[in-house]
Design goal:
Layout lengths: L1 H7 L6 H22 L14 H14 L1 H4 L15 E2 L5 H10 L15 H14 L13 E8 L4 E8 L3
Helix pairs in contact: 3-6, 5-6
């Protein structure tokens, strides 16, 4: 019956085809679930943290980032996090991605093994609040000018970058 059904008449799916169909179905269900998940945090979906999250982000920043970026984000070994110049763009998503993946060639380690996505999001949110604070002894600008604006009529984010002196 098996040989006749699957190999001669080509009715139905063989076990490999059934397995692939199940994988495709599971992937579609996963995508639907993730689209509805309001707590999803990844390189594309990074929410701005609330007050408690900002405090947690600050604690983690102070414990892990001060050595390179300074207590106020003014820079040191690492770049200044308070100005409008960024080596790898300065949106919340870009900051999250930098913390998560790092740039080992520039001395920035990946923090993905130490922090979960929510904690990385909280640190990225805290760093975003440092922009424009102008601390004393801030390191000279590095990277490209980055400004993020939100158009109120279309609610679209636009990025303006200009090359700076490096």
């Amino acid at each position: 019956v098996y040989l006749l059904n699957f190999h001669v008449l080509s009715n139905g799916k063989n076990p490999t085809e059934e397995y692939q169909a199940e994988l495709n179905n599971a992937q579609a269900e996963k995508e639907i679930y993730e689209a509805k998940n309001k707590d999803r945090i990844d390189e594309i979906h990074v929410p701005m943290a609330d007050a408690a999250g900002l405090q947690t982000g600050k604690v983690n920043f102070m414990a892990n980032c001060v050595a390179c970026h300074g207590a106020n984000g003014e820079g040191g070994v690492g770049p200044n996090l308070t100005d409008d110049y960024w080596l790898h763009n300065g949106s919340l998503n870009d900051i999250y991605n930098t913390i998560k993946k790092g740039y080992p060639d520039k001395g920035m380690q990946s923090w993905a093994t130490k922090f979960n996505p929510k904690e990385i999001s909280q640190m990225a949110s805290f760093i975003a609040t440092l922009k424009g604070t102008k601390p004393a002894n801030g390191k000279a600008p590095q990277g490209d000018l980055f400004r993020e604006t939100i158009a109120t009529d279309s609610l679209q984010i636009t990025k303006a970058t200009a090359t700076s002196t490096k």
